[in-house]
Design brief:
The chain is of the alpha/beta class. 35% of the residues lie in helices and 22% in strands. A seven-stranded parallel beta sheet has the order 14-15-13-16-17-12-18, with helices on both faces. It has a six-stranded parallel beta sheet with strand order 19-29-28-20-27-26, with helices on both faces. Helix 12 packs across helix 19. The longest helix is centred in the last third of the chain and has 19 residues. The chain is globular, with a radius of gyration of 31 Å. It starts with a strand and ends with a strand.
Amino acid sequence: MKKFVDVIVPLPIANQYTYSLPQEMEEMVQIGCRVVVPFGRKKFYTAIVTHVHYSAPEGYETKDLCEVLDSSPVLLPEQYEFWQWLSDYYLCTLGDVYKAAIPSGMKLESETLVEYNPDFEATVPLPEKEQTILDLLSRDPEQCITQLEKASGLKNVLTVIKSLLDKEAIFVKEELKRNYKSRTEARVKLANGEADEAYLEQLFNDLSRVPKQLAALMKYVELSGWTSKGCALKEVTKKELLEKSGISTSVLNGLIEKKIMEVYHQEVGRLDKRTWPLGDINPLNAAQQQAYSDILQCFREKNVCLLHGVTSSGKTEIYIHLIQKALSAGKQVLYLLPEIALTTQITERLKRVFGHRLGIYHSKFPDAERVEIWQKQLKEESYDVILGVRSSIFLPFRKLGLVIVDEEHENTYKQQDPAPRYHARSSAIMLASMFKAKVLLGTATPCVETYFNATSGKYGLVELKERYKELQLPQIDLVDIKELTHQKRMQGPFSPTLVRQIKDALNRKEQVILFQNRRGFAPMIECHTCGWVPRCKNCDVSLTYHKGLNQLTCHYCGYTYQVPRSCPACGGVELMHRGFGTERIEDDIKLLFPEAKVARMDLDTTRTRTAYEKIIADFQQGRTDILIGTQMVSKGLDFDHVSVVGILNADTMLNFPDFRSYERAFQLMAQVAGRAGRKNKQGLVILQTKSPDLPVVHQVIRNDYEQLYYDQLAERQMFKYPPYYRLIYVYLKHRKEDVLDLAADAMAAWLRAGLGDRVLGPDKPPVARIQTLFIKKMIIKVEQNASMAKVRHYLLAVQRAMGEDERFRSLVVYYDVDPQ
């Protein structure tokens, strides 16, 4: 009887697909294994098997599987269940989840290869572009399209390829691109594996006239431990032999030609195999010990507990004790952090305690390394503790016992684009429940919804109100920059008070952090004469000026533009910089304090893993005096010598069209303030704002989270926002604005027919066009006691119906559940 398999393909396609199983592969296929399947015209993808059965599908002829890639599953049953929950809850396809979850090195994809036709003879001279491509192919007869595009410098190479195909000058074939290659190392050994002392003595005599080859052989004998009786030979790498014996490759090649030695390749992993000196766990102080005991008590009754501890209260030490307890019970731990920058600091603390039992996983790692971590997690000797950012929730776990979500309030836990638009905190709670594991949420400034769940009894709540070693919370001084600007007393973005405090801190050999939540040099350029502002041609936003690159950049689509020499509207040459980004702050601070060593930490300076690590290490070791940064500097970093923190403009956070803007502003300012005065004395925070009378500003100064929370609750209950209502944002995108308007009105009518006045909109979002697509947005507010399953079912039905309408074929519709 013929066997079939159902598979998930890494594409945003709603259904799973069924393929027939060739007889020779029947014994090889298991659920959770990767297989190569043909999909569409001449395309191949790596799919994952979810079901093996004997039922032929109705309505289409099945194609055969091409290849089985795994001898054991790479997707465990618990993970597949978790994927299904994510797909269902966040209204996306299983293909979306698969694409996000698995490292790209494990997803082979079809890449078009172009092959030169040696029999082709041109009857007439070819156009220049076509001749360029043929010249490249004559040097290397088989290349992929991306290679040709790069080498030729041609913008639209596909049209040239098509023209050459028509002339039969080239052939095109599809070939699987294997992204992941295991790392191998060249090692050396004696060609005669049975070598004894007499044989070696003979070799030494034979090589007496070739001293360099003799020296290499003797060094190999020494390194391999050949002379140690009863011990297995150590493997010797080619690199080690060349370095230790001081010979050249040609000398070694001579020994290989004489068949005395041979080179072989051994697979080696990329993962960090250094051994760390293990230290003892620090004892907890009385307050921490009380919190630790309270958490354990909470876990007896509830699966989720919130640890609400002020900044610098030593939450990490409590986490370490909880991890140790979970490991003693034979369980695995997942420790989530919101930012890659944080992993570098916490890694060292955890490595000292847990050593090689700790694995680190985030997107700044090379893909091959992430593949190896995934594969290690599938084995018996997997990591016991995984430290990582939001994507770590997808890793395979077998015995998960504890999940720690540090800085749980951070919005970086929410994936924005592409789908699945999941929230790592909510997803981690769900993942833990599948393993009957416990979840600890830790923060100094909880998310309003989390605090609501904790105070209403859904989660446990433990509070830690004193800083470690009885440090005082920083003093926060408020500076009204609106008044100072009128009086022309500001030095760029710096008030006289801030300048004086920075100067004093530098004189005392202390460090300063300056926080500005905008990267680049200036948020925009403006013509002084006519007010013209350069805007992105793909998006409805002004362009940000980056001085270091001397270009204008769109922070939405990434497109870059040359800086104009004169205004294209009026010809004026006086182009002014409006506003301050981190790059401009850096320039201005260097002018004010030329002796100070200044560093900047934002998206532009931390593109790589090593860049993050260097900036943090330099600041930690006192090689930097002033650190300027965006919200990256607010997230739980621990520096000993920071005495002054400057929040340059609180208004950029407060004046944001979002119901969470005050909550966010409080969290950001409180977290940034928490970086001041860590070890030996009270720190100082200078909070600059044009709105000194706002309640939220005074709540930050008093560190009064409770008052902010009650203010927010009252507002949200009145206007139907979380935690009293669930939110789903509906986005529609199209290249043509008129088609989009039509589609948005049609979809709104459909949604209202089923959901009534829960539907608001459609409206234009603050940025109404991104990457040439016009955008419309609707908000759905669902009361807590309504059935979310029915709402989700209805939304997917409406989405399908929109897709079936001829007019809206190229319309993009997607949902953002629980937006942040």
